[in-house]
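Propose amino acids for all 230 sites.
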């Protein structure tokens, strides 16, 4: 069977990194974007999709998930909202859940029928160290990423007999994406609390993704990619 990679949130940060990686490997890849436009040379491989809208996501999956194909879905779409809970905006708090958790569910739900028909599938989600370690101001983000853990375990059991695996990568602080918005002095403080005293290199994400694609007996689990930070 042919291989195909589907990536949500593929126009920025980690999604962009993975999109370029698979494209350069000459593997068929399609991505979604919403707020951040894709680079011109890859534009034809992108579709504008609001992952929090199931119909939007299903239409994208139906257009790109060919039957009897070895499909891999990588859920990178996500947003953050920083505010302590008692001062937070309920609508903004809820939006993080809608994009990060419900958006991940939408993509998984839409792609599973194709994977089950093919008797093959790899689903990789991104969670976060913030779901393991209390970080002030991240309650919405942490809640969305914690929810992905439980959802992943249930879906893994439902589909394990069909050669479909689903796993999470619990990211620590990587030298890519949202960390770039953090002031330099705060970045240095964060590094001082990481046992390896540095942010993770983006290539470590690619290595971990490839490992989970290749692995046949790992499902319903989370890999901590965080330099020893707990």
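Proposal:
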């Amino acid at each position: 069977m042919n291989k195909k990679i589907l990536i949500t949130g593929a126009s920025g940060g980690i999604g962009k990194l993975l999109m370029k990686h698979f494209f350069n490997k000459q593997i068929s890849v399609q991505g979604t974007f919403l707020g951040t436009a894709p680079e011109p040379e890859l534009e034809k491989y992108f579709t504008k999709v609001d992952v929090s809208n199931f119909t939007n996501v299903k239409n994208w999956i139906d257009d790109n998930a060919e039957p009897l194909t070895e499909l891999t879905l990588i859920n990178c779409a996500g947003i953050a909202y920083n505010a302590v809970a008692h001062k937070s905006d309920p609508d903004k708090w809820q939006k993080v859940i809608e994009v990060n958790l419900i958006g991940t569910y939408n993509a998984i739900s839409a792609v599973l029928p194709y994977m089950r028909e093919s008797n093959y599938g790899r689903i990789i989600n991104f969670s976060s160290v913030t779901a393991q370690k209390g970080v002030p101001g991240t309650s919405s983000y942490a809640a969305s990423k914690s929810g992905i853990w439980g959802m992943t375990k249930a879906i893994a059991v439902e589909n394990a007999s069909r050669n479909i695996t689903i796993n999470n990568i619990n990211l620590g602080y990587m030298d890519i994406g949202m960390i770039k918005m953090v002031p330099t002095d705060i970045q240095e403080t964060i590094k001082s609390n990481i046992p390896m005293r540095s942010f993770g290199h983006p290539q470590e994400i690619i290595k971990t993704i490839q490992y989970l694609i290749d692995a046949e007996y790992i499902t319903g689990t989370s890999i901590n990619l965080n330099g020893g930070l707990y």
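Strands lie at 3-8, 28-33, 46-48, 70-75, 121-128, 164-171, 222-225. The mean pLDDT is 94.
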